[in-house]
Amino acid sequence: MFDNYLVRKDSLENVYKDGKAVGFKFGVRIADYRGCFLSLHNGYYVECDGVEYPKEVQKFEINGNEPRDFEEIKKCVWEHWDYDDEGYVYIQKEGGLAPGEHVIKLQQSILAQYGYMPWDEEWLKNPPTPGKGAGSGKTANICSFNLELQEGGK
Amino acid sequence: MSIKRGVSLYSYQQTQFFKQMNWKDMIREVHDNLKTDGIEIIDEAIIKNYPFPSEQFIFDWNNEMARYNMKATTMDIYLDVHQFRDHIMTHREAAERLKNDIKLAAKLGFKNVRPLCLVPIDVIEMALETAEKYDIRIGKEIHAPLPIKKGTKVQPTKGMAAALDFRMADQIIELANRTGSKHLGLVPDFGIFQHSPSKIAIDYAKRQAKNPEVIDFILENRKSYDLDEMSDVLDKKYAHHGIDLSTIERMSLHESSAKPEDIIDIIPYIVSIHGKFYNMTEIEGKPDCYEDAAIDYETPIKYLKEHGFNGYINSEYEGQRDQQDRGVEFLPDEREQVRRHHEMLSRLIGE
After folding, report:
1. Is B118 on the interface with A (CB under 8 A)?
2. Residues of A in contact with B119 (CB under 8 A)
3. What is the pLDDT of residue B162?
4. Looking at the predicted complex, does its ipTM rise above 0.85?
5. CB atoms inside a 10 Å sphere around CB A146
6. Which of B170, B169, B166, B129 has the alpha carbon at shortest distance from B145?
């Protein structure tokens, strides 16, 4: 669900540190009809212009906090990502993105479910790798977005 | 007293997503345009800062409901067993979550909570005392592919159907009888009377499939194979077809998971009903009369009427998610869909 609308079209920006581009970010919504406990958020499959960026180089910004990596997010067991709220995905990439259009492919992974399932122990030990479909909630496809890099972020 | 109409605000999820209506606008829509008073919510979609909303939110909610004289019927609640991430939530912890949701529902003026069909029966039992204390009825959902009565139905070994217990409704009735509790019951979802895939779901599946022919094959042969067999046949006939199991499950549907007449015996236990639907279209030759061509509403409502059910059927529109993979011009109008659903409900109820 919300296949075409998970990423906000005018939200792609480079991220700067000390005047140098260190990555890029874009705004996302939850791929579900309800929010979730933040701890359940297990990262993204992100591909930009054919290059895959694994969970280890991703951070997530929500609820007015600084961007947090997914090891920290995992510990936010009582914090909630409300359905109405947009979050930002940060991707570490030296030099950021070049001006112009970029193709982002995305699948969100959230370990939300409707009760006990046969794979629970496995997910506890080895959370699914985003992009394989497991934990993709109500949007099982990898969705594609053509985004124009916006000015800002400096 | 007759059957009452209501709306689960779930029905307006897309409008909420695009910030075209907030929960107050939804309440007004139900009051002003549907001329009814039943409101159901998804806790994690409507309650700001769930599960610990502010006193201000709670007051604002109750105030708005009072303003329009609305009835808070059922709050839909969840069970995310991975919440703590360092261990799987135990049944006792799950019961604590359920108790907290019951207290929250009471604060917001709801009469019932709806736990999901996968919530273990002992979790429900552990929370029953809290439900009694706060005068909240626990209504466990009978959701497709569950039947109402298991009978001779053979349970598939794959997909969602494999994880469910087909005796669920019996377990609840047994527990209600054993404890004598009036605070335990069932929330049947009209999806259990869906007999064929909805056209919008078929169209979506075809747009997403690498090879749409595979979808046609499933549709043409859905009566010849059960779910387990279909999956194997597809793997043999179309290697690397890439169709996920839940799509195969949806496209293979060829009979309703519950028998309409089975609803008669559970009427005393029905807390409220989910009026699930996907696509309301005009009935041929009957201007301004609508139906969902994939779901039998007529037969179950006939039985509910004949046997004196006087609770709420709350609209639960779910067709939007199959139409969000293209431009805004293809997005359905949720308000119009729910209005059509209420035309049908009013007509079948006989208001």
Report:
1. yes
2. 115
3. 81
4. yes
5. 10
6. B166
